[in-house]
Amino acid sequence: MIQKLALLSALFCVFLLSAFFIYITDGVIGFHYDDFKENVNAYSYLLNNPETAYLSKENSFFTDGLAIGSAFALAFSMFFIYLANGRITVLLLCGYFLSSAMLLSLFLGFPLSIVSADFYQLHSVDIPVLIVISKLLLMWFSVLVFKAKSISIRVYWIIKSICWLLLFYLPICFILPIKISLYLSVYIELSISTLLLIVGVYLIQKSHRLSVLFTLFVFIQFIFALLNFVALYVFSIDVYYKYPYLYTVSFWLSGSITVFMLSRGYYYQIQDKKIAEQKALKSLDKSKKAQAELLMLQEESQEKLESRVQERTLELNIALQELESVNKELAEKNTLDELTGLYNRRYYDQKVVAEYRRSRRNLTPLSLVVIDIDHFKKVNDNHGHIAGDQCLIWVAGKIKAALGRVTDLGCRYGGEEFCLILPETDTKGAISLAETLRESIESEIFVFDKVKIPMTISCGVSTYWQQPDINPENIFAAADEALYSAKKNGRNQVQKKILTGTTES
Asked: Which of 324, 332, 416, 444 is labelled catalytic?
């Protein structure tokens, strides 16, 4: 019901916005241009040809208004769909289409100042700002839709870093000279389109469901960005001024593919749900058949029934034992790191909260030791990743040997970083254990393929003594700071960080 309401609202929005922009462009914009003559196409500044930038009164206000209105309607349609399903990816698409629609209105010659005179200060700055915002939202959308962090950490951090750079660049647009800001906006548009195209090809290699549609969408963005770049900087042609509907075509091609990609995503979700339901129905049918067989057996002789029941009971016990074994193996896989055999990050996140609560309830200390292998990158660079993996396994073995109590837990936090959870252990005990582990690794040479590789570790220690306003994240952050201090002071050492209430010392 909610989705139908959102669809009807979106259709009404299309009609309303289209009619509104037809009216605005026919009545207001024409008057604005006739009286003020101050709206200039921004890229004409880059060509040093502002006299050709004034808009002609021969422009078709009806078709321009229809194009802009329908573009804004598409953005608002995404907003209504977001209200229906609450997905953040749809809201990001709404923002992307809204900023792209505003760019479309600017390229067709309708500045923001026609809506309100207050927007006149944004004249010529609006295009760089909107380009940055649209690309920022598009990259954010790509990260969430394709779950970039689970596919490739490197790709995820590259995109995230670029997003932060764009956020920092936004306020700089207002203080840079107009010409430089516009130059940079064209470079940014082409660079991000190229980056997303590479990401799309990478996703195709990973056989992601929506990768082909996403790559096609980004390829269209790349083609039009490249065309604009070459026309502007090689041939000194303002392509959006000479061919005003070029951006309209780009917008609607991209919009159509994006909407289709969104629809396919929902289709895949529905198909997955149907497959799961079909499997459940098959399991139910099997259960019903088993019950029918049992009833048939009950109608037979008691002797045969008892015999069959015993047989089935034996089979059931075997199946339960196998199921228990499989469940146990699955639970171990979900909690153990496959490479090192230590507990994984997920188990750490669960266990540290449980131990924190037990420590606070029993008024006992809880210590965390964060461990990082010194110069681990050199091992990978000089001896290969296989050597790096063997090094991690070797250090994990040392950690297991150093943990003397059943309650002490060793976890692989990520990469070459490990974390020890030490319940009922004060700072002195944690430091002692960390020093023992450090000396053990330093004293014994790691050997790979008959090559001796000396290894050392740095450790950071923090202890929770029921200080107020302290949570597990604060305890880990303190230990991590201590680890950073150990790294900074020369590595191969143990440092501690004392928690004091809401502050750390």
From this structure: 416
